[in-house]
């Protein structure tokens, strides 16, 4: 991998880590950008399906199905809390 690609991968991982920490520390659940939350879930191994404005995330490791809808480009606060609960329950963490 060349240096520029490595820098992009590294900076993306940093963005995921920042969002992950923000969610886990319960900081401003109302101001989580929807597209960033979707990208984080995919990075954590979830598969996304879309039906209309519903984004459905599943993985074999998690019993719950996460059904998310954006509101003005942001994730809904109760959905951020739901995701935090799943991350804690299943001890899901970002890996290098």
Question: How would you explain this protein's 3D organization?
Answer:
The structure is a single chain. The longest helix has 22 residues, at 3-24. The strands form 2 sheets. The protein has a 3-stranded antiparallel β-sheet, covered by helices on one side. The chain is 47% helix and 23% strand. It is α+β, with helices and mostly antiparallel strands and 96 residues long. A hairpin with a 2-residue loop joins β2 and β3 (62-68). The protein has 3 helices and 5 strands. Mean pLDDT is 89; it is low at 1-10. The protein has a single domain, classed as Hypothetical protein (Metal Transport, Frataxin, Chain A). The chain is globular, with a radius of gyration of 14 Å.
Write the layout of secondary structure elements.
Layout: H1 3-24, H2 34-43, E1 47-51, E2 54-59, E3 62-68, E4 70-71, E5 74-75, H3 77-89
Antiparallel strand pairs: 1-2, 2-3, 4-5
What are the salient characteristics of this protein?
96 residues, alpha+beta, three-stranded antiparallel beta sheet, two-stranded antiparallel sheet, disordered N terminus
């Amino acid at each position: 991998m060349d240096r520029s690609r490595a820098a992009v991968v590294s900076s993306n991982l940093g963005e995921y880590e920042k969002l992950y920490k923000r969610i886990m520390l319960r900081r401003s659940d109302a101001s989580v950008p929807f597209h960033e939350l979707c990208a984080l879930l995919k990075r954590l191994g979830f598969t996304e399906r879309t039906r209309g404005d519903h984004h459905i995330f599943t993985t074999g490791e998690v019993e719950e199905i996460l059904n998310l809808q954006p509101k003005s480009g942001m994730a809904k606060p109760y959905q951020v809390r739901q995701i935090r609960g799943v991350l804690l329950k299943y001890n899901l963490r970002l890996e290098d």
